[in-house]
Amino acid sequence: MVDRVIQQAISQVLSKIFEPQFSNNSYGFRPRRNAHQALRQCQRYITEGYIYAVDMDLEKFFDTVNQSKLVEVLSRTIKDGRVISLIHKFLNAGVVVRNKFEQTKIGVPQGGPLSPLLSNIMLNELDKELEKRGHKFVRYADDMVILCKSKRAADRTLRNILPYIEKKLFLKVNKEKTTVAYISKIKFLGYSFYRKKGEGLLRVHPNSFAKMRAKLKELTSRSNGWGNERRKELLSQYIMGWVNYFKLAKMKNLLLRTDEWYRRRLRMVIWKQWKLIGTKGANLIRLGINKYKAWEYANTRKGYWHTHSQ
What's the pTM? Predict the structure, then answer.
């Protein structure tokens, strides 16, 4: 706890010093900046005709940062050796994972109050280099896209920037996950992009949609032992958070389809809770269903999911 308080104190002081140095194209872990602003910036570049992207994947960034390089970058601005020494001690202090101590001779320990700022200080070196070379890019923490007007230009950009990242900053690039692709093929902060009448637009990436469905399935499972009020509360929190984050995307039809599926899941949960044929029939009649139809449904041999397709 003492370490965290001191790290937070250092972070608050250093943030004010380094914030003016940071790039306008960097949006993660910074005051008054967020993911939606980063996505809007991507939209503007795409509208300007930058339709191919270098989708950069820095391999396990927090685990592989070269501490000596980070200290060198810090020392250019922070002249008090005691502060540098204290930060270096935090970097080398190690972490406890599942009650087991692990050394941290490389990387930045995740979860510490100082780690986000240190990652921005390190990656600001890459930001400045990209700006010097005239590239259009957007970065959120270690998630980055560089936007170009043609595939050829994007290929050339990736080829030319790799030596700087690996030999100057000593960071590792995941070659398998780093790709050059048309904007509709990439994923950035859970979104993907497309153009319509020359305008850059956002959509929910298929992987993000699949995760949302899986989460809703988990929350509407009867096997988790929750009561209906608890389930309702958790579903409300998750849905509101998800919709608020993805509100920049065009997703009316997606939400209508999901709502239909989700309501069917909820009906299935309630149907399972009623259990007995008599309870099912009586409750259906109470809900206004024709008496004959209510008992027909109550006695059905169809599975839970098919019963609620109607």
Answer: 0.84
H-helix or E-strand spanning residue 146: strand 143-148
What residues form DSSP beta bridges with 180? 54
pLDDT for 110-138, tens place per residue?
777 888 999 999 999 999 999 999 999 99
Which residue in 160, 143, 141, 163 sits closest to 152, CA to CA?
160
Question: What are the φ/ψ torsions at residue 96 (nearest 5 degrees)?
Answer: -110, 115
Which tokens sit at 260?
A: 């239909």
Q: Which residues pair with 196 in a beta bridge?
A: 199
Residue reference for tokens 């007995």:
276
Strand-pair partners of 137: 146
User: Please, what is the angle between helix 228-245 and helix 206-219, to 10°?
Assistant: 170
Give every CB contact of residue 74 below 8 A, 6+ residues apart in sequence.
84, 87, 121
Cα–Cα distance measured from residue 249 to residue 130, given in angstroms and rounded to the nearest whole number: 28
d(CA 198, CA 207): 25
Burial 254-286 (b: 16+ CB within 10 A, else e): eeeebeeebebbbbbbebeeeeeeeebbebbee
pLDDT of 48 over the 80 cut: yes
Q: How far apart are CA 141 and CA 26, in angstroms?
A: 8
Residue 274 to residue 134: CA distance in whole angstroms? 65
Amino acid 279 reads T
Q: What is the DSSP letter of 224?
A: G
Continuous segment of H or E residues that includes residue 53: strand 52-57
Supply the angle between the helices 81-92 and 2-18 in degrees, to the nearest 10. Answer: 130
The rounded distance, in Å, linking the Cα atoms of 147 and 138 is: 8
